[in-house]
Design a protein that fits this description.
4 copies of one chain form a homotetramer.
Chain A (H helix, E strand, L loop, with lengths): L10 E4 L15 H17 L3 H6 L3 E11 L8 E11 L3 E10 L5 E12 L10 H8 L8
Antiparallel strand pairs in A: 1-3, 2-5, 3-4, 4-5
Amino acid sequence: MSDPSSAGPTHRVRVRYCETDRMAVAHHGSYVAWFEEARTEWMRARGKTYRQMEDEGNLLQVVELVCRYHKPVDYDDVVAITVRPGEVSKVAVVLEYECRRERDGALCATGSTKLACVGRDGRLRRLPGEFAGAAGAVDRPAQA
Amino acid sequence: MSDPSSAGPTHRVRVRYCETDRMAVAHHGSYVAWFEEARTEWMRARGKTYRQMEDEGNLLQVVELVCRYHKPVDYDDVVAITVRPGEVSKVAVVLEYECRRERDGALCATGSTKLACVGRDGRLRRLPGEFAGAAGAVDRPAQA
Amino acid sequence: MSDPSSAGPTHRVRVRYCETDRMAVAHHGSYVAWFEEARTEWMRARGKTYRQMEDEGNLLQVVELVCRYHKPVDYDDVVAITVRPGEVSKVAVVLEYECRRERDGALCATGSTKLACVGRDGRLRRLPGEFAGAAGAVDRPAQA
Amino acid sequence: MSDPSSAGPTHRVRVRYCETDRMAVAHHGSYVAWFEEARTEWMRARGKTYRQMEDEGNLLQVVELVCRYHKPVDYDDVVAITVRPGEVSKVAVVLEYECRRERDGALCATGSTKLACVGRDGRLRRLPGEFAGAAGAVDRPAQA
């Protein structure tokens, strides 16, 4: 299990009208943007923004995305997203997400993204030190 | 001129990574979602949510959208959006938007949406009383 | 392995400008829309449109999404997407996707969506007969 | 009036599921992407792709967007979009769009985008020769 202390503050998003679809619930693709926004805030809370990291030439490319949908959320619902680091290697980190409907606490979706660190040339790079900290905070073995 | 007191509290959005494009700034289409989110909050601040209004059978259809782009905003920038009611008739209301880049106050975009009130059958309906209030708050003559 | 004959004609999408991001390639979330468009066309080629299926009260909810990213695609690139049915049970079907960059045939992304059939009440329903056909076309055992 | 010969071939888009919203029709923001896709094809038909133009350092920034909505379109509807050049100056061009629902020819939306030519430095530049051709094809006076 992850050390809860490595989770940043829960990030809240309110479902936009344009994020709903013909089924009158949030479209399954909307969670991709919410995961992304939540990890932006998770990184900010850890001390360096992703924008700064990217400006320094360290890009995080999404190499794998997984999302499982448990309960729908509707327009104007607030979704609370918790981010936790999973496996961390020298060049990649997995972040795990849990989305809850704020009005009743129901678990809506869980997922993960595997992010690889690359330079502007697209070649793999060692993750910056900030993520080494994330690695230390979890009790799963780091992998190559 | 609009009575400033009819403007709700300024709504802030932070530019999402997925809202940027190949020019490395926010895509011009992103403002459509921001205007929408800002008017959702403007309505909430006035006492009735748009979700409640729609659940009561009063739908606001966008019949006209205008946006003028003055300065770009980048990923992670905060955009402050002010909403003010413009012309109001029995069945339609114009909302006007002003977007400023929070870090320097620069005017990024201005725009408007004309919203017509329709029922689930798509036929025009009289705007609910909440908007009559908006009409009273502006000094432009109401139009049919 | 899937019976290749169960794959519909390859569906082509051209990367839209708004689908690119600050890294100057297609955003990873764009593939969600492309998978969706490709399965719409796969269903059309099999004889019944998803719109017709939904109008008949059989909704396909995405319960799991997986995407692995291998090579980036840029604005105006054509992406060729092949859809193949994977596991099929009485109430759910997995569709698998393979995306290739048309200009050089490079594998860009692979992924899958698990779709559960539900009624307007959100309760699980037996998949319509069209998918039983998909089940017959694959040699993996059906699962509950 | 525009010379019809300056309109490229009509561009068709099929409404994606993710482009619909809670009103069960295409979201008003979806037209922004369709206008963009239609002008990409209009430029391709005139002999130089926008991607090539951008690779040569000539960027077209949207400085104004207008859209008027006449009739809704639903998921899986085909929308036929015609593009025509409007006013052209040395540094900017207006493109006008007309969207029709293919199944019945109904006019769904009309709109325009004003595009200014800028370099990578964000400074205004003279439009490339391809657009001078567009200017010649219309009978409105060019403006500074």
